[in-house]
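[step 3/7] fold_predict: job queued, chain A
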Amino acid sequence: MSADDDLDRLDEGLANGETHAVVSAAAERDGDAGRTDTGDPDADRAELAGLRRENVRLRQRYEALRDGQYRRTAVALAALGVAGLLGGALFPPVRETLVVLGAIGLFAAAVTRYLSPERFIPVGVGSSVFGAHASNHAAVVDELGLQDATVYVPDADRDSVRLFVPEHRAYALPDAEALRDTFVVTDDELARGVAFDPSGGGLFDEFERSLDGPLGDDPETLARQATDALVELFELAGAATAETDAADGRLTVRVEDCRFAAAETFDTPVASFVAVVVARGLDAPVVTEVAAGEEMDFAVTCRWEVGGDGETEPEPSADAADGTTETKRETENADPDERR
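[step 4/7] structure written:
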């Protein structure tokens, strides 16, 4: 089979959407290269450069053929829509039907033309890129000797959330202005640490735009919205279930079949997204813990302080109650003069 026949066969496969044609062609060329290897390093490098150029050319051709296919489809649908509208004007008895068909054709043409499929980055590539940034952040935290705690603090003025990693175990939260710096150095030593933009911030922006209604302001609604987004919107997990305890200030999301990053990754996107959702919805700082499990990839636990009208006075302990009773008895048995 000649080279021209190979290119013709490749063009036909690309036109039909058979992307494996590129791989097959590359494999055939790799096999031919292996059979014609002369052992000359310069010749091998030249041949490798030629194969790379050929691969780039094939990819560009595939993109052009795919875009041309969508354009042709859009033109055909637009022609159908125009024909339907003209038919409605020429044939009054079936005008309504033809007008509806014409409108559908024009709408489908517009959707096909302007909402053609986007380019997707493979999960492995995205994970590798994110993993490098996460490793750098983790190295900064480790070399500075900071704590393992991760606190997601909302910034109401900027409609955003910052990830704060404190220096001390018994830490205090810095104000919003101080958290806007990467290295948080305040007069209060307990409020020092580092602050980052969380990986879930961008996911939250996309999630907020896709909401049909407002963002929830209670743990149950936020848990439902976050788990639905993880599975249905972003497809970051195969399944996600949530448990909430509003009285204790706790929300736990169990994630199965996580498709991006792992539990050990610093500011892993799934946990970060859940924490940002809770922090924005409750408008309160959220401390997040990520724990690997056996039956699920990992569990994300978000905790926040519970205050307000729901607080109650602590009940006296058993020892205190016994002491009060004993004192009362001694007072009753005491001499009247002593009581006075």
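[step 5/7] annotate
Residues 30 and 51 are 8 Å apart (CA to CA).
The beta strands are 150-155, 160-166, 183-184, 193-196, 237-245, 250-258, 286-292, 298-303.
exit 0
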